[in-house]
TrEMBL record, chain A:
Alphabetically ordered keywords of this record: ATP-binding, GTP-binding, Hydrolase, Nucleotide-binding
Source organism of this protein record: Streptomyces cirratus
Keyword GTP-binding part of the UniProt annotation: yes
Sequence similarity: Belongs to the GPN-loop GTPase family.
Highest taxon listed in the record's lineage: Bacteria
GO molecular function: ATP binding
Residues making up the signal peptide according to the UniProt record: none
Presence of the UniProt keyword Transferase in the record: no
The protein's name: ATP-binding protein
Pfam families: ATP_bind_1 (PF03029)
From TrEMBL, chain B:
Ranges for region Disordered: 1-26
Membrane-spanning residues: none
Protein name: DUF742 domain-containing protein
Domain of life: Bacteria
Compositional bias (Basic and acidic residues): 1-13
Amino acid sequence: MDSATSDRRETRRTLSSTADNGLKIVIVGGFGVGKTTMVRSVSEIRPLNTEETMTKAGEGVDDTDAVAGKNATTVAFDFGRITLDAHNVLYLFGAPGQERFWFLWDRLFSGTLGAVVLVDTRRLADSWYAIDRLEHHGTPFVVACNDFGGPSHTAEEVRAALDLSPEVPLVFCDARSRASSKDVLISLVSHLQTATLSHTPEPTP
Amino acid sequence: MSRTRPGRDDSPDRLYTLTGGRSSSGSDAFDLVTLVVAECDPVPGMQSEHTAILRMCQYPTAVVEIAADLGLPVSIVRILLADLLGTGRISARHPRSAYRLPDPDILEQVLVGLRNL
Ligand SMILES: Nc1nc2c(ncn2[C@@H]2O[C@H](COP(=O)(O)OP(=O)(O)OP(=O)(O)O)[C@@H](O)[C@H]2O)c(=O)[nH]1
Ligand SMILES: [Mg+2]
């Protein structure tokens, strides 16, 4: 890590005492699709790793029986942080999108602003399940195709393969690039604004 | 850079001791991104995890950061935090927009913040 980068990260380790509003965005995708890389690209802290323990029924497990492993499982996730202004702090969570992890989501990511579905165009089927679930839950999301240098696909081809509805934004990105990852987040938040506007009743003239 | 995953190697006995075997009542209030602020300094004789949390939270610190720092599962940290909140040793700044469609003003602030990165 170059020193400019580590300096920037060190000086921002501590939040300002005025910080009072935590916000969440989830980056979901198949194994090795670049979730941690994207979190690292935009985070002001080195991505941290933690885990949550859950029952098979999808309820949070807070009792020690469950922690001891009875009828419980754990999911590890990593996260990074972006200080937006004096009050708002955005946390980015990288989470596995496979079917067997989904029962954890309601609890883990309730109240999230929205999601980025990160896909590798060589393995599009890996993201079908995540997209289904997000649609089902009504969680707004964008799809970001991470560039692994494979054969290029047009947006239309990817949309068709994912059966994406027209209002879901599709973007191409390089998760290793800060600027590119930032653009993905901006496209998500712009999409959220559109979604919010279309749900806000028009003022009567 | 990867540390060992927290919690995995902790014996159930240790986790039991940390929480006094109690369950979660009151700890649900802590979202992953609830920002925790210490309201006092650690005092001698305090449980070491409580001491660590109070040190860490001299400035606002999210629940998930506390968990990563302590190397404990979030569910255990929620219980520790509920203890500290109950005795007034910390305060909690909960996320403002817990609804599905967030406040347009907040979204605008997020967008401005991201563009300024
Ligand atoms: N060529 C290319 N490689 C990338 C890109 N993004 C990530 N990688 C590489 O792909 C590998 C996997 O990236 P990770 O960020 O660890 O992926 P992940 O989704 O967090 O993986 P898991 O947590 O193991 O599921 C790493 O070696 C990255 O350097 C990209 O945009 N282009
Ligand atoms: Mg990862």
